[in-house]
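This section describes the prediction task in plain terms. A model, or a person checking by hand, is given the sequence of a single protein chain and must write out its three-dimensional structure as a string of tokens. No templates, partner chains or ligands are provided. The sample shown here is typical of the held-out split.
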Amino acid sequence: MERKIAALRKHHIICGYGRVGSQIAEEIAAARKAFVVIDEHEANIQHCMHKGYLALQGNASRDSVPCAAGMHYAQVLFVATDQDANNLSITLSARHLNPGLFLIARANEDEAGGSRPRPLSVLHWWTQHGKSSATAHRYGFF
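The expected answer:
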């Protein structure tokens, strides 16, 4: 699996494989795009591997884990953990590691509005990939 991940270019990375992250993974897999899932929970990683997804177990807020997922070569990062502080940390770290990365971060609390991506950027990416704006709202991306 490490070799497959190392060979990826312009792929997507999904941080967090809960309710939102698993749905994103299904939609990206259906679109036949390359992606890697990062999650801390072994059960989630096992589920990903069972579905044939590339996956890494670890804390995505530590630079070594996203780097192992090919962060320097990734095109899009979905940050969908259930902790706003982690989402913000992952987003800031990702921007430092790959300034050209397109970031989509989930905010779980209304007070976290400052860490949310610009709605038009999310809407553009989402609709370019055949998703409705209502779906983006439902998953809490803006």
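For orientation: Confidence is low (pLDDT under 50) at residues 115-127.
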